[in-house]
TrEMBL record:
Name of the molecule in the record: Ran guanine nucleotide release factor
Keyword Transport: yes
Keyword Protein transport attributed: yes
Entry's Gene Ontology cellular component terms: nucleus
UniProt organism field: Xyrichtys novacula (Pearly razorfish)
A UniProt-annotated Pfam family: Mog1
GO biological process terms, semicolon-separated: heart contraction; protein import into nucleus; regulation of membrane depolarization
Length: 189
């Protein structure tokens, strides 16, 4: 039975957004940093991450999504030549967003070659990254959609590849970005 997308409270209700079906809050499974909300697809190896990070004032708006993408590549240990590539960076119009407080918004699409849990096996993952800039709160909001394209047979993720039922789509990600709403600016301190 297919479940409809649902609005989820984030960061104790300070934010909310519409999430696609089959999203599982991973904080119920493992510890997640306080500045992140992480959701995994129930049947695939896809994930969605909403992260509050420090506003990077030294980085121009048009370069900030690439800056954060490269930072994520570093965290994923995907920094060797050819391990990551940006394919597009496009601005998002304020009229397309529920988050009226952001000064600019960008969506980057790129590819990273990453391993899970420090494994040797590398998986090719398309990373869709939305950046919502909130300089008045000294915060950048990152929304990442990790969409595996090829999974190594030696990866711990290989088992989930067989159960690729109803994967999330780029439209699911875009709806989440467009519906992100701020309810309590106190979230930013």
């Amino acid at each position: 039975m297919q479940r409809a997308p649902q609005t989820r409270a984030l960061f104790g209700g300070a934010l909310s957004a519409v999430f696609p079906q089959s999203s599982v809050d991973t904080s119920e499974l493992r510890e997640i940093p306080d500045n992140q909300e992480v959701f995994a697809h129930a049947h695939t190896d896809q994930s969605l991450i909403i992260e509050l990070v420090e506003f990077q004032a030294q980085v121009a708006d048009q370069d900030a999504a690439r800056y954060h993408f490269e930072d994520i590549a570093g965290s994923n240990k995907a920094t060797e030549p050819g391990a990551f590539q940006v394919t597009t960076v496009v601005p998002v119009s304020q009229s397309e967003l529920s988050l009226s407080d952001c000064s600019s918004a960008w969506i980057l699409t790129g590819i990273q070659s990453v391993s899970k849990f420090n494994e040797d096996a590398k998986n090719t993952v398309t990373l869709h990254l939305a950046l919502l800039r909130l300089p008045q709160f000294s915060t950048d909001i990152l929304i990442s959609f990790n969409d595996p394209q090829s999974i190594s047979p030696d990866s711990s993720s290989a088992a989930s590849e067989e159960t690729h039922r109803e994967p999330w789509t780029l439209q699911d990600f875009q709806r989440l970005v467009q519906t992100l709403t701020l309810h309590d600016p106190g979230l930013f301190g």
